[in-house]
Amino acid sequence: MEGVAISQLKEDSICIADDDKKICDILKAQLESMGYAVEVFYNGIDLLERFKKTPCDLIITDIMMPGLSGYELCREIRAFSDVPILMISAKDEEIDRVLGLELGSDDYISKPFSLREISLKVRNILRRVNSKQQTSDSQICCLDVTINSDSREVSVNSQILNTSNKEYELLHLFITNKNRAFSREQIIQTIWGYDYMGDNRQVDHLIKRLRKKLLLADAQCKIETVWGFGYKVSDKG
């Protein structure tokens, strides 16, 4: 088996379950050389118990193991987690691969495998997961409106909505607190600051401009008036 050394900026954690100690040792050495934190288990039961207490970023599991098979391990974990699962097995029948995927595994690799192949699969799986997490962290949505906090852009059905700084900040406040009503005073303090000396009508003017832009963009997400109190955005459509 040939080795591939790929450095990682983020130390993702990987749990391996295989009753073959030699394979575990080889995989652990290879993945640690790539910068991952690796923990090895020689059966599915121990890995499952560990994962329930301390989740990891990726699970690599053999199928044929005593006590708890890779299929059963995958089924158990999918009941409460969407962690990526890579199955490895000497069984190379199509039905085995299909069953693993149906149970929720993300990929399947047959023994004997090359370290280059499994290294690339691990890297690609974790890259996809980390990319989704970063997108999730930087984007917030309400129905068809999306706010990207990195670029400070608002889009409606993927079309950029031209907003001023105050309009962006107000929509960001509402969408990060969907279904929560804000009084005019709370909006003033959040958007303009505590030392603002103007009157509350500025809030109404800002709301009016933003509502018009959302209406012209045919957005389902709307700013609602909470009579006698203030405004909110609802995700009920």
Low-confidence stretches: 1-10
Shape: elongated
Strand content: 15-25%
Mean pLDDT across the residues is 84
Read across the widest sheet, the strand sequence of neighbours is: 2-1-3-4-5
Largest sheet: 5 strands, parallel
Count of alpha/pi helices: 8
Structure class? alpha/beta
Count the strands?
12
Helix content: 40-55%
Describe the overall structure:
- It is built from eight helices and twelve strands.
- With 237 residues, the chain is of the alpha/beta class.
- The strands form three sheets. The protein has a five-stranded parallel sheet with strand order 2-1-3-4-5, sandwiched between helices. A four-stranded antiparallel sheet has the order 6-7-8-9. Strands 10-12-11 form a three-stranded antiparallel sheet.
- Helix 6 crosses helix 8 (201-216).
- The longest helix has 24 residues, at 115-138.
- The N and C termini lie far apart (56 Å).
SSE blueprint and pairings:
Blueprint: E1 13-17, H1 21-33, E2 37-41, H2 44-53, E3 58-62, H3 70-78, E4 85-89, H4 94-102, E5 107-110, H5 115-138, E6 139-142, E7 145-148, E8 153-156, E9 159-161, H6 165-175, E10 182-183, H7 184-192, H8 201-216, E11 223-226, E12 230-233
Parallel strand pairs: 1-2, 1-3, 3-4, 4-5
Antiparallel strand pairs: 6-7, 7-8, 8-9, 10-12, 11-12
Helix pairs in contact: 2-3, 6-7, 6-8
